[in-house]
């Protein structure tokens, strides 16, 4: 139980990596503040975790909505008195090749994957600074390090996450707050659901471990980074990709 009585706020917690992370943190003893734009999938997750013994504050919201997120954070502080870890997990794709990508596709991905991460962190960080401790974790991607066909917008946001992580590690380190990013390879979640099986097989063949990753394999890295076992890790970008980018 590495996260006993830990309070973790996880965005995009209703499915995929966010859901696996919520389950992992709860299994390690944490209580949870969860949000997702999809109430139909978020509510059953909150119920499941409560049945397992965790205290859960769950709110359907769009992370791009500053007012709604501020209200959630205020409610979390009122209920739990603190937020130990923020996991900026919510993310979307709107893929198209450079010459076909519309401004709408570009802006939609920037709004959720980059601007909302800035905003959510800006709203939570003062509470961590006040206590002199906390961990901010964000979802980057190997795509942010190496680029990817058809993902101008998405790759830009995931590279931006790395730049913000390093900047915040410098700004918040002296205040006792650690800031890190995880850069997953290809992880089997609903986000990849539209990719044909044949392409998924080809992707797996490029990975030295010869398979795609599981959401639980990202969740366990977030749990480690949130725990005191990672007490001297800040400003890091941890690639979790089965060796895909070697
Ligand atoms: P997913 O699409 O399976 O789940 C994302 C969750 O975030 C959904 O429940 C969705 O409703 C929620 N969400 C999306 N936009 C939101 C918004 N504006 N406000 C609130 N909630 C919102 O995605 P997955 O695969 O679990 O990815 C999670 C994170 O990990 C994302 O940031 C993604 O970019 C990143 N990632 C995923 C990889 C993969 O291969 N699956 C690889 C590298 C990074």
UniProtKB/TrEMBL annotation:
Catalyzes the NADPH-dependent reduction of beta-ketoacyl-ACP substrates to beta-hydroxyacyl-ACP products, the first reductive step in the elongation cycle of fatty acid biosynthesis. It is an enzyme of class 1 (oxidoreductase). Residues 6-185 form the Ketoreductase domain. GO terms for biological process: fatty acid biosynthetic process. Pfam families: adh_short_C2. The gene is fabG. NADP(+) binds at residues 89, 154-158, 187. This is 3-oxoacyl-[acyl-carrier-protein] reductase. It comes from Thiomonas arsenitoxydans (strain DSM 22701 / CIP 110005 / 3As).
């Amino acid at each position: 139980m590495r996260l006993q009585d830990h309070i973790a706020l996880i965005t995009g917690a209703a499915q995929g990596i966010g859901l696996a992370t919520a389950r992992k943190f709860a299994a390690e003893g944490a209580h949870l503040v969860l949000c997702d734009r999809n109430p139909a999938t978020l509510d059953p997750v909150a119920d499941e975790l409560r049945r397992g013994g965790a205290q859960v504050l769950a709110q359907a919201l769009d992370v791009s909505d500053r007012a709604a997120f501020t209200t959630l954070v205020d409610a979390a502080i009122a209920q739990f008195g603190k937020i130990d870890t923020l996991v900026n997990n919510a993310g979307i794709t709107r893929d198209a090749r450079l010459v076909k990508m519309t401004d709408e596709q570009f802006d939609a991905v920037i709004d959720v994957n980059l601007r909302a991460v800035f905003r959510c962190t800006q709203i939570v960080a003062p509470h961590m600074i006040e206590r002199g401790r906390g961990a901010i974790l964000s979802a980057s991607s190997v795509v942010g390090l190496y680029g990817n066909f058809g993902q101008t917008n998405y790759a830009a946001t995931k590279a931006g996450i790395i730049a913000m992580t390093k900047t915040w590690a410098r700004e918040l380190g002296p205040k006792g707050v650690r800031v890190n990013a995880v850069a997953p390879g290809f992880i089997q979640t609903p986000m990849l659901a539209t990719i044909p099986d044949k392409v998924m097989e080809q992707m797996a063949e490029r990975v030295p471990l010869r398979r795609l990753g599981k959401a639980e394999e990202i969740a366990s890295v977030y749990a480690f980074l949130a725990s005191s076992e990672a007490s001297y890790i800040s400003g890091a970008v941890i690639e979790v990709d089965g060796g895909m980018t070697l």
